[in-house]
Amino acid sequence: MVEKSETKKDTVIKATTKQPSRMSLLIGAVFLMATSAIGPGFLTQTTVFTQQLAASFGFVIFISILLDIGAQMNIWRIIAVSERRAQDIANLVLPGLGYFVAVLIVLGGLAFNIGNIAGAGLGMNVLLGVSPEQGAIISAVIAVAIFIVREAMKVMDRFTQLLGIVMIGLTLYVVFTAKPPVGEAVVKTFIPDKIDMMAIVTLVGGTVGGYITFAGGHRLLDAGIKGKNALPEVTRSAISAIGVASIMRVVLFLAALGVVAKGLALDSSNPPASVFQLAAGNIGYKLFGIVMWAAAITSVIGAAYTSVSFIRTFHKNLETYHRWIIVAFIVISTIVFVSIGKPVKTLILVGALNGLILPISLGVMLIAAYKRNIVGDYKHPLWMTIFGSIVVMAMAYMGIYTLITQIPQLFS
Protein backbone atom coordinates (compact mmCIF):
# COMPACT_ATOMS: atom_id res chain seq x y z
CA MET A 1 0.00 0.00 0.00
CA VAL A 2 2.83 2.41 0.86
CA GLU A 3 4.61 1.71 -2.40
CA LYS A 4 1.41 2.28 -4.38
CA SER A 5 0.73 5.54 -2.52
CA GLU A 6 4.22 6.83 -3.20
CA THR A 7 3.87 6.01 -6.89
CA LYS A 8 0.63 7.95 -7.07
CA LYS A 9 2.21 10.88 -5.25
CA ASP A 10 5.17 10.87 -7.65
CA THR A 11 2.74 10.91 -10.58
CA VAL A 12 0.90 13.91 -9.12
CA ILE A 13 4.20 15.76 -8.57
CA LYS A 14 5.32 15.05 -12.14
CA ALA A 15 2.01 16.22 -13.54
CA THR A 16 2.19 19.37 -11.45
CA THR A 17 5.72 20.25 -12.51
CA LYS A 18 4.69 20.09 -16.16
CA GLN A 19 2.05 22.78 -15.66
CA PRO A 20 3.23 26.40 -15.87
CA SER A 21 2.42 28.55 -12.84
CA ARG A 22 -0.37 31.10 -12.93
CA MET A 23 2.15 33.93 -12.72
CA SER A 24 4.06 32.46 -15.63
CA LEU A 25 0.89 32.38 -17.73
CA LEU A 26 0.08 36.00 -16.85
CA ILE A 27 3.60 37.14 -17.77
CA GLY A 28 3.34 35.12 -20.98
CA ALA A 29 0.19 37.02 -21.97
CA VAL A 30 1.84 40.34 -21.11
CA PHE A 31 4.85 39.71 -23.32
CA LEU A 32 2.84 38.13 -26.15
CA MET A 33 0.80 41.30 -26.46
CA ALA A 34 3.77 43.65 -25.96
CA THR A 35 6.06 41.89 -28.42
CA SER A 36 3.19 41.60 -30.91
CA ALA A 37 3.05 45.40 -30.81
CA ILE A 38 6.84 45.82 -31.02
CA GLY A 39 7.43 44.85 -34.64
CA PRO A 40 9.18 46.36 -37.67
CA GLY A 41 6.30 48.81 -38.10
CA PHE A 42 6.65 49.88 -34.46
CA LEU A 43 10.36 50.58 -34.94
CA THR A 44 9.78 52.41 -38.23
CA GLN A 45 6.83 54.49 -37.02
CA THR A 46 8.62 55.60 -33.84
CA THR A 47 11.76 56.64 -35.72
CA VAL A 48 9.96 58.43 -38.58
CA PHE A 49 7.72 60.44 -36.25
CA THR A 50 10.64 61.35 -33.97
CA GLN A 51 12.42 62.73 -37.03
CA GLN A 52 9.32 64.76 -37.94
CA LEU A 53 8.25 66.01 -34.49
CA ALA A 54 11.51 65.85 -32.48
CA ALA A 55 10.91 66.20 -28.71
CA SER A 56 7.18 66.95 -29.25
CA PHE A 57 6.74 63.31 -30.20
CA GLY A 58 6.80 62.66 -26.45
CA PHE A 59 3.29 64.18 -26.27
CA VAL A 60 2.07 61.77 -28.96
CA ILE A 61 3.49 58.83 -26.99
CA PHE A 62 1.87 60.08 -23.76
CA ILE A 63 -1.60 60.45 -25.32
CA SER A 64 -1.30 57.12 -27.13
CA ILE A 65 -0.43 55.33 -23.86
CA LEU A 66 -3.60 56.70 -22.22
CA LEU A 67 -5.72 55.59 -25.18
CA ASP A 68 -3.97 52.20 -25.23
CA ILE A 69 -4.75 51.57 -21.56
CA GLY A 70 -8.39 52.62 -22.01
CA ALA A 71 -8.84 50.22 -24.90
CA GLN A 72 -6.95 47.24 -23.51
CA MET A 73 -8.37 47.22 -19.99
CA ASN A 74 -11.94 47.14 -21.35
CA ILE A 75 -11.26 44.46 -23.95
CA TRP A 76 -9.29 42.08 -21.73
CA ARG A 77 -11.80 42.33 -18.84
CA ILE A 78 -14.82 41.67 -21.06
CA ILE A 79 -13.12 38.68 -22.72
CA ALA A 80 -12.24 37.28 -19.28
CA VAL A 81 -15.64 37.77 -17.65
CA SER A 82 -17.58 36.46 -20.66
CA GLU A 83 -15.15 33.54 -21.02
CA ARG A 84 -15.42 33.87 -24.79
CA ARG A 85 -13.16 35.03 -27.61
CA ALA A 86 -13.89 38.39 -29.20
CA GLN A 87 -15.51 37.02 -32.37
CA ASP A 88 -17.98 34.93 -30.36
CA ILE A 89 -18.82 37.95 -28.22
CA ALA A 90 -19.43 40.03 -31.37
CA ASN A 91 -21.75 37.35 -32.80
CA LEU A 92 -23.82 37.48 -29.60
CA VAL A 93 -24.04 41.28 -29.82
CA LEU A 94 -25.29 41.04 -33.41
CA PRO A 95 -25.46 37.80 -35.42
CA GLY A 96 -22.82 37.85 -38.14
CA LEU A 97 -20.86 40.71 -36.60
CA GLY A 98 -18.23 38.31 -35.27
CA TYR A 99 -17.49 37.08 -38.77
CA PHE A 100 -17.09 40.67 -39.98
CA VAL A 101 -14.71 41.52 -37.12
CA ALA A 102 -12.77 38.29 -37.72
CA VAL A 103 -12.30 39.15 -41.40
CA LEU A 104 -10.99 42.62 -40.48
CA ILE A 105 -8.61 41.20 -37.89
CA VAL A 106 -7.29 38.36 -40.05
CA LEU A 107 -6.71 40.58 -43.10
CA GLY A 108 -5.01 43.21 -40.94
CA GLY A 109 -2.94 40.52 -39.22
CA LEU A 110 -1.86 39.08 -42.56
CA ALA A 111 -0.84 42.51 -43.85
CA PHE A 112 1.14 43.17 -40.68
CA ASN A 113 2.72 39.73 -40.80
CA ILE A 114 4.11 40.33 -44.27
CA GLY A 115 5.90 43.34 -42.80
CA ASN A 116 6.98 41.28 -39.80
CA ILE A 117 8.51 38.62 -42.05
CA ALA A 118 10.23 41.38 -44.03
CA GLY A 119 11.69 42.78 -40.81
CA ALA A 120 12.93 39.37 -39.74
CA GLY A 121 14.63 39.00 -43.13
CA LEU A 122 16.23 42.43 -42.77
CA GLY A 123 17.48 41.58 -39.28
CA MET A 124 19.06 38.37 -40.57
CA ASN A 125 20.60 40.34 -43.45
CA VAL A 126 22.33 42.70 -41.00
CA LEU A 127 23.47 39.92 -38.67
CA LEU A 128 24.50 37.15 -41.07
CA GLY A 129 24.87 38.85 -44.45
CA VAL A 130 22.23 36.64 -46.09
CA SER A 131 19.68 38.23 -48.44
CA PRO A 132 16.48 39.56 -46.79
CA GLU A 133 14.53 36.87 -48.63
CA GLN A 134 16.76 34.10 -47.31
CA GLY A 135 16.63 35.64 -43.83
CA ALA A 136 12.83 35.71 -44.01
CA ILE A 137 12.70 32.02 -44.92
CA ILE A 138 15.07 31.08 -42.06
CA SER A 139 12.97 33.13 -39.61
CA ALA A 140 9.75 31.57 -40.87
CA VAL A 141 11.19 28.10 -40.26
CA ILE A 142 12.04 29.10 -36.65
CA ALA A 143 8.52 30.48 -36.08
CA VAL A 144 6.92 27.37 -37.56
CA ALA A 145 9.10 25.14 -35.36
CA ILE A 146 7.75 26.85 -32.24
CA PHE A 147 4.17 25.92 -33.15
CA ILE A 148 4.82 22.30 -34.07
CA VAL A 149 6.60 21.30 -30.85
CA ARG A 150 4.61 19.48 -28.19
CA GLU A 151 4.40 22.35 -25.66
CA ALA A 152 3.96 25.11 -28.25
CA MET A 153 2.24 27.63 -25.97
CA LYS A 154 4.89 27.32 -23.26
CA VAL A 155 7.69 27.71 -25.81
CA MET A 156 5.90 30.72 -27.34
CA ASP A 157 5.63 32.41 -23.92
CA ARG A 158 9.29 31.87 -23.04
CA PHE A 159 10.51 32.92 -26.47
CA THR A 160 8.61 36.23 -26.45
CA GLN A 161 9.68 37.03 -22.88
CA LEU A 162 13.36 36.47 -23.60
CA LEU A 163 13.43 38.47 -26.82
CA GLY A 164 11.31 41.26 -25.31
CA ILE A 165 13.91 41.78 -22.58
CA VAL A 166 16.75 41.60 -25.13
CA MET A 167 15.14 44.31 -27.31
CA ILE A 168 14.68 46.76 -24.46
CA GLY A 169 18.16 46.14 -23.06
CA LEU A 170 20.00 46.64 -26.36
CA THR A 171 18.01 49.77 -27.21
CA LEU A 172 18.81 51.21 -23.78
CA TYR A 173 22.51 50.85 -24.63
CA VAL A 174 21.94 52.90 -27.79
CA VAL A 175 20.15 55.58 -25.73
CA PHE A 176 23.24 56.00 -23.56
CA THR A 177 25.46 56.36 -26.62
CA ALA A 178 23.03 58.77 -28.35
CA LYS A 179 22.84 61.13 -25.32
CA PRO A 180 19.35 62.57 -26.03
CA PRO A 181 18.12 65.89 -24.55
CA VAL A 182 15.97 64.22 -21.90
CA GLY A 183 14.94 67.49 -20.22
CA GLU A 184 13.56 68.88 -23.47
CA ALA A 185 11.74 65.62 -24.13
CA VAL A 186 10.02 65.79 -20.73
CA VAL A 187 8.91 69.41 -21.26
CA LYS A 188 7.61 68.80 -24.79
CA THR A 189 5.72 65.71 -23.60
CA PHE A 190 3.34 68.06 -21.78
CA ILE A 191 3.81 71.28 -23.79
CA PRO A 192 4.32 70.18 -27.40
CA ASP A 193 5.15 72.54 -30.26
CA LYS A 194 2.84 70.56 -32.54
CA ILE A 195 0.07 67.95 -32.18
CA ASP A 196 -0.02 65.40 -34.98
CA MET A 197 -3.24 63.32 -35.27
CA MET A 198 -1.70 61.02 -37.86
CA ALA A 199 1.03 60.11 -35.39
CA ILE A 200 -1.45 59.45 -32.56
CA VAL A 201 -3.70 57.25 -34.74
CA THR A 202 -0.70 55.35 -36.08
CA LEU A 203 0.82 54.73 -32.64
CA VAL A 204 -2.46 53.57 -31.09
CA GLY A 205 -3.16 51.44 -34.16
CA GLY A 206 0.33 49.98 -33.98
CA THR A 207 0.02 49.19 -30.24
CA VAL A 208 -3.59 48.09 -29.65
CA GLY A 209 -5.13 48.21 -33.12
CA GLY A 210 -6.27 45.24 -35.14
CA TYR A 211 -5.29 41.88 -33.67
CA ILE A 212 -2.70 43.18 -31.19
CA THR A 213 -4.85 44.07 -28.17
CA PHE A 214 -6.59 40.68 -28.38
CA ALA A 215 -3.29 38.73 -28.33
CA GLY A 216 -2.93 38.68 -24.55
CA GLY A 217 -6.67 38.50 -23.85
CA HIS A 218 -7.08 35.38 -25.96
CA ARG A 219 -3.86 33.91 -24.52
CA LEU A 220 -5.23 34.27 -20.96
CA LEU A 221 -8.47 32.61 -22.07
CA ASP A 222 -6.57 29.68 -23.58
CA ALA A 223 -4.58 29.41 -20.33
CA GLY A 224 -7.79 29.17 -18.28
CA ILE A 225 -7.42 32.56 -16.57
CA LYS A 226 -11.01 33.78 -16.83
CA GLY A 227 -14.14 34.62 -14.87
CA LYS A 228 -14.95 37.40 -12.39
CA ASN A 229 -12.46 36.14 -9.81
CA ALA A 230 -9.61 36.61 -12.27
CA LEU A 231 -10.45 40.24 -13.13
CA PRO A 232 -7.87 41.88 -10.80
CA GLU A 233 -5.11 39.79 -12.40
CA VAL A 234 -6.44 40.42 -15.89
CA THR A 235 -6.54 44.18 -15.31
CA ARG A 236 -2.98 44.26 -13.98
CA SER A 237 -1.79 42.17 -16.91
CA ALA A 238 -3.50 44.47 -19.42
CA ILE A 239 -1.80 47.55 -17.96
CA SER A 240 1.54 45.73 -17.61
CA ALA A 241 1.48 44.73 -21.29
CA ILE A 242 0.95 48.35 -22.34
CA GLY A 243 3.73 49.27 -19.92
CA VAL A 244 6.25 46.90 -21.53
CA ALA A 245 5.40 48.10 -25.05
CA SER A 246 5.53 51.73 -23.89
CA ILE A 247 8.96 51.30 -22.28
CA MET A 248 10.30 50.13 -25.64
CA ARG A 249 8.54 53.02 -27.39
CA VAL A 250 10.04 55.62 -25.02
CA VAL A 251 13.52 54.08 -25.14
CA LEU A 252 13.51 54.01 -28.96
CA PHE A 253 12.15 57.59 -29.06
CA LEU A 254 15.00 58.81 -26.85
CA ALA A 255 17.58 56.99 -28.97
CA ALA A 256 16.19 58.54 -32.16
CA LEU A 257 15.88 61.97 -30.52
CA GLY A 258 19.54 61.86 -29.53
CA VAL A 259 20.50 61.35 -33.18
CA VAL A 260 18.01 63.89 -34.60
CA ALA A 261 18.99 66.55 -32.04
CA LYS A 262 22.55 66.41 -33.34
CA GLY A 263 21.29 67.34 -36.81
CA LEU A 264 22.16 63.97 -38.30
CA ALA A 265 20.03 62.79 -41.25
CA LEU A 266 18.32 59.40 -41.13
CA ASP A 267 18.28 57.06 -44.11
CA SER A 268 14.69 57.18 -45.42
CA SER A 269 14.95 53.59 -46.71
CA ASN A 270 15.66 52.26 -43.20
CA PRO A 271 15.18 54.93 -40.49
CA PRO A 272 15.60 52.74 -37.37
CA ALA A 273 18.86 51.25 -38.68
CA SER A 274 20.19 54.80 -39.12
CA VAL A 275 19.46 55.59 -35.47
CA PHE A 276 21.44 52.61 -34.19
CA GLN A 277 24.34 53.13 -36.61
CA LEU A 278 24.64 56.89 -36.13
CA ALA A 279 24.44 56.51 -32.34
CA ALA A 280 26.81 53.57 -31.87
CA GLY A 281 28.67 52.99 -35.14
CA ASN A 282 29.07 49.51 -36.62
CA ILE A 283 28.34 47.90 -33.24
CA GLY A 284 25.08 49.83 -33.18
CA TYR A 285 24.23 48.57 -36.66
CA LYS A 286 24.72 44.96 -35.55
CA LEU A 287 22.62 45.65 -32.45
CA PHE A 288 19.92 46.95 -34.75
CA GLY A 289 20.00 43.62 -36.58
CA ILE A 290 19.35 41.79 -33.30
CA VAL A 291 16.58 44.19 -32.23
CA MET A 292 14.92 44.15 -35.66
CA TRP A 293 14.99 40.35 -35.83
CA ALA A 294 13.70 39.97 -32.26
CA ALA A 295 10.93 42.51 -32.84
CA ALA A 296 9.94 40.91 -36.12
CA ILE A 297 10.01 37.23 -35.16
CA THR A 298 7.99 37.78 -31.96
CA SER A 299 5.44 39.79 -33.96
CA VAL A 300 5.25 37.01 -36.56
CA ILE A 301 4.37 34.61 -33.74
CA GLY A 302 1.88 36.99 -32.10
CA ALA A 303 0.14 37.92 -35.37
CA ALA A 304 -0.21 34.32 -36.50
CA TYR A 305 -1.43 33.02 -33.12
CA THR A 306 -3.96 35.82 -32.56
CA SER A 307 -5.28 36.04 -36.13
CA VAL A 308 -6.00 32.32 -36.17
CA SER A 309 -7.62 32.55 -32.71
CA PHE A 310 -10.28 34.73 -34.38
CA ILE A 311 -11.45 31.94 -36.68
CA ARG A 312 -10.78 28.73 -34.74
CA THR A 313 -14.17 28.75 -32.95
CA PHE A 314 -16.19 28.89 -36.18
CA HIS A 315 -15.83 25.17 -36.95
CA LYS A 316 -14.61 22.14 -35.01
CA ASN A 317 -12.01 21.33 -37.69
CA LEU A 318 -10.55 24.83 -37.35
CA GLU A 319 -10.21 24.22 -33.62
CA THR A 320 -8.71 20.76 -34.10
CA TYR A 321 -6.12 21.86 -36.63
CA HIS A 322 -5.55 25.43 -35.45
CA ARG A 323 -1.80 24.97 -34.97
CA TRP A 324 -1.40 23.87 -38.59
CA ILE A 325 -3.49 26.83 -39.70
CA ILE A 326 -1.07 29.06 -37.77
CA VAL A 327 1.79 27.41 -39.66
CA ALA A 328 0.00 28.04 -42.97
CA PHE A 329 -0.53 31.70 -41.98
CA ILE A 330 3.23 32.11 -41.46
CA VAL A 331 4.08 30.32 -44.71
CA ILE A 332 1.66 32.45 -46.75
CA SER A 333 3.07 35.67 -45.21
CA THR A 334 6.58 34.54 -46.15
CA ILE A 335 5.65 33.66 -49.72
CA VAL A 336 4.00 37.07 -50.22
CA PHE A 337 7.04 38.92 -48.87
CA VAL A 338 9.53 36.96 -50.95
CA SER A 339 7.35 37.73 -53.98
CA ILE A 340 6.59 41.45 -53.52
CA GLY A 341 8.51 42.90 -50.53
CA LYS A 342 7.35 45.53 -48.02
CA PRO A 343 8.19 49.27 -48.20
CA VAL A 344 8.53 51.61 -45.20
CA LYS A 345 5.51 53.74 -46.16
CA THR A 346 3.23 50.72 -46.21
CA LEU A 347 4.27 49.77 -42.66
CA ILE A 348 3.10 53.21 -41.52
CA LEU A 349 -0.11 52.90 -43.54
CA VAL A 350 -1.02 49.52 -42.05
CA GLY A 351 -0.56 50.95 -38.55
CA ALA A 352 -2.93 53.80 -39.36
CA LEU A 353 -5.54 51.49 -40.88
CA ASN A 354 -5.32 49.18 -37.85
CA GLY A 355 -6.23 52.24 -35.79
CA LEU A 356 -9.53 52.34 -37.69
CA ILE A 357 -10.33 48.76 -36.65
CA LEU A 358 -10.00 49.66 -32.95
CA PRO A 359 -13.17 51.82 -32.65
CA ILE A 360 -15.21 49.00 -34.16
CA SER A 361 -13.80 46.19 -32.03
CA LEU A 362 -13.74 48.21 -28.79
CA GLY A 363 -17.25 49.58 -29.44
CA VAL A 364 -18.58 46.04 -29.81
CA MET A 365 -16.92 44.97 -26.55
CA LEU A 366 -18.41 47.92 -24.63
CA ILE A 367 -21.90 47.01 -25.85
CA ALA A 368 -21.27 43.40 -24.84
CA ALA A 369 -20.36 44.50 -21.31
CA TYR A 370 -24.03 45.36 -20.72
CA LYS A 371 -25.63 42.23 -22.17
CA ARG A 372 -26.54 39.65 -19.51
CA ASN A 373 -26.45 36.77 -22.00
CA ILE A 374 -22.75 37.55 -22.46
CA VAL A 375 -21.44 38.72 -19.06
CA GLY A 376 -24.12 37.39 -16.69
CA ASP A 377 -24.48 39.46 -13.51
CA TYR A 378 -21.12 41.23 -13.98
CA LYS A 379 -21.31 45.03 -13.56
CA HIS A 380 -18.79 46.82 -15.75
CA PRO A 381 -17.34 49.88 -13.96
CA LEU A 382 -18.90 53.09 -15.26
CA TRP A 383 -15.55 54.88 -15.40
CA MET A 384 -14.16 52.16 -17.64
CA THR A 385 -17.14 52.48 -19.97
CA ILE A 386 -16.65 56.26 -20.15
CA PHE A 387 -12.90 55.82 -20.66
CA GLY A 388 -13.48 53.23 -23.40
CA SER A 389 -16.16 55.37 -25.08
CA ILE A 390 -13.77 58.32 -25.20
CA VAL A 391 -11.20 56.07 -26.90
CA VAL A 392 -13.79 54.89 -29.43
CA MET A 393 -14.90 58.43 -30.30
CA ALA A 394 -11.38 59.87 -30.37
CA MET A 395 -9.97 57.08 -32.52
CA ALA A 396 -12.97 57.12 -34.88
CA TYR A 397 -12.63 60.88 -35.39
CA MET A 398 -8.86 60.91 -35.73
CA GLY A 399 -8.87 57.77 -37.85
CA ILE A 400 -11.36 59.16 -40.37
CA TYR A 401 -9.60 62.53 -40.40
CA THR A 402 -6.29 60.81 -41.06
CA LEU A 403 -7.75 58.61 -43.79
CA ILE A 404 -9.20 61.59 -45.62
CA THR A 405 -6.46 64.16 -45.23
CA GLN A 406 -3.13 62.58 -44.37
CA ILE A 407 -2.73 59.08 -45.81
CA PRO A 408 -2.93 60.21 -49.49
CA GLN A 409 0.12 62.41 -48.82
CA LEU A 410 2.18 59.33 -47.94
CA PHE A 411 1.96 58.16 -51.52
CA SER A 412 1.88 61.52 -53.32
From TrEMBL:
<keyword id="KW-0812">Transmembrane</keyword>
<dbReference type="GO" id="GO:0034755">
    <property type="term" value="P:iron ion transmembrane transport"/>
</dbReference>
<keyword id="KW-0472">Membrane</keyword>
<feature type="transmembrane region" description="Helical">
    <location>
        <begin position="382"/>
        <end position="404"/>
    </location>
</feature>
<feature type="transmembrane region" description="Helical">
    <location>
        <begin position="92"/>
        <end position="114"/>
    </location>
</feature>
<dbReference type="GO" id="GO:0015086">
    <property type="term" value="F:cadmium ion transmembrane transporter activity"/>
</dbReference>
<feature type="transmembrane region" description="Helical">
    <location>
        <begin position="323"/>
        <end position="341"/>
    </location>
</feature>
<dbReference type="InterPro" id="IPR001046">
    <property type="entry name" value="NRAMP_fam"/>
</dbReference>
<feature type="transmembrane region" description="Helical">
    <location>
        <begin position="238"/>
        <end position="265"/>
    </location>
</feature>
<keyword id="KW-1133">Transmembrane helix</keyword>
<protein>
    <submittedName>
        <fullName>Mn2+/Fe2+ NRAMP family transporter</fullName>
    </submittedName>
</protein>
<feature type="transmembrane region" description="Helical">
    <location>
        <begin position="347"/>
        <end position="370"/>
    </location>
</feature>
<feature type="transmembrane region" description="Helical">
    <location>
        <begin position="23"/>
        <end position="43"/>
    </location>
</feature>
<feature type="transmembrane region" description="Helical">
    <location>
        <begin position="198"/>
        <end position="217"/>
    </location>
</feature>
<feature type="transmembrane region" description="Helical">
    <location>
        <begin position="49"/>
        <end position="71"/>
    </location>
</feature>
<feature type="transmembrane region" description="Helical">
    <location>
        <begin position="285"/>
        <end position="311"/>
    </location>
</feature>
<feature type="transmembrane region" description="Helical">
    <location>
        <begin position="134"/>
        <end position="152"/>
    </location>
</feature>
<feature type="transmembrane region" description="Helical">
    <location>
        <begin position="159"/>
        <end position="178"/>
    </location>
</feature>
<dbReference type="Pfam" id="PF01566">
    <property type="entry name" value="Nramp"/>
</dbReference>
<dbReference type="GO" id="GO:0005886">
    <property type="term" value="C:plasma membrane"/>
</dbReference>
<dbReference type="GO" id="GO:0005384">
    <property type="term" value="F:manganese ion transmembrane transporter activity"/>
</dbReference>
